[in-house]
Amino acid sequence: MNSHADLLIKNIGLLATPTGSVPKAGAAQGQIETHENVCVAMGGGVFLGVGSEEQLRSFVDADTAVLDAGGCLATPGLVDAHTHLVFGGWRQHELGLKLHGVPYLDILKSGGGILSTVRATRAASLDELVGKGVGLLHTMLEHGTTTCEAKSGYGLSTEEEKKQLLAIRKLDDIQPVDLVATFMGAHALPEEYSDDREGYVRLLIEQMIPLVAKERLAEFCDIFCETGVFSAEESRRILTAAREHGLKTKIHADEIDAIGGAVLAGELPTHSAEHLIAADDEGLAAMARGGTIAVVLPATSFYLGKPFARVQDMMSLGIPVAVASDFNPGSSPNLSLQLPMNLACYQYKMTPEQVLTAVTLNAAAAIGRAETVGTVEPGKKADLVLWDAPDLDFIFYRYGNNQVRTVVKNGTVMIE
Ligand code: NIG
Ligand code: FE
């Protein structure tokens, strides 16, 4: 490993980070390491060491840039493990329907919701999707997100899904936030297949999944397993095909109704299961047996006016829990992980330490990146957030404004 520090951040009042390269389950989820009055040295894009200025002296020379953190809190860069980042248009016209109590799935059934974003995404060019994505990712970075999962699922045809995945690939190349791509062609039944469910399932299995795998367009395959969208049986077929083609799997499970999504997630098992608002005891027990990571999305519960997932039960069962934004134009039009972090604390009753693990190490594990990001440890990517806060409780106690002061990505100060 490089021994020259390109950057030394000194005068960090409190560094709070999980450690280890596996997700921390249950009570261990809240066991983080803290260091008072420390410095962090980074070089070649990775962390070199944590310690006093004296302890890090061997890494530092005349070329080392020095940043004074002014005694504030530092954490690992945040990892957003669940977003629908790339799409055309927005859906502000649905706000009035929502205020009149029209349910989310009814809006979809009448050709709106996800299907309205499908029309707008198909109408957008690849360059337009990329241009919009650059702006969105910059806002995420300003709010502390340094790694982010991004799903397709607003194309719903081979060509249009590929366009979205190519936009994600391009975005990964041209801006600082690291992206992990997920294919989600099974996000809704496209209008042209409304009388031929089996035809679309076969298109996914026989054409889209093989193409995505062959061209390495995505690492994960996800599906919306929900009443009126894809059944548990269809989800099993599609995710099994994805796995046979070498894709890792995720599932939007039991978001609104418990239709067997969490049970399936535990049985296959999938790498992660997302939402889980309505997951029952059987589903959670299956996930615990299968070792499936739970990705919970409190900003979606908040925006849709739904209950909050049973996170205390998950943690008691030893299920690793990640918290993510679910950024998308329909059920969570919020780019910042800070709102979900506050909600996880207030509504799930997670401790600040448990939430920190949920948006760093466990989130990294949920997208297959626990070996490279999610903690401040020598050799991991030097992704660090400095907060306008003296300690960890402070960022959970305050809410509604951006509390991030400085963001370092791969050892370079990107936001200051
Ligand atoms: O995770 N639930 C399904 N998919 C997204 C919403 C997508 C949309 O409404 O555009 C979600 O909430
Ligand atoms: Fe989602």
From TrEMBL:
GO terms for biological process: L-histidine catabolic process to glutamate and formamide. GO terms for molecular function: imidazolonepropionase activity; iron ion binding; zinc ion binding. Signal peptide: none annotated. Residues 74-413 form the Amidohydrolase-related domain. It is found in: Cytoplasm. Binds 1 zinc or iron ion per subunit. It is an enzyme of class 3 (hydrolase). 4-imidazolone-5-propanoate binds at residues 91, 154, 187, 255, 331. N-formimidoyl-L-glutamate binds at residues 154, 328, 330. Its EC number is 3.5.2.7. InterPro entries: Amidohydro-rel, HutI, Metal-dep_hydrolase_composite, Metal_Hydrolase. Keywords: Cytoplasm, Histidine metabolism, Hydrolase, Iron, Metal-binding, Zinc. It catalyses: 4-imidazolone-5-propanoate + H2O = N-formimidoyl-L-glutamate. NCBIfam families: hutI (TIGR01224). This is Imidazolonepropionase.
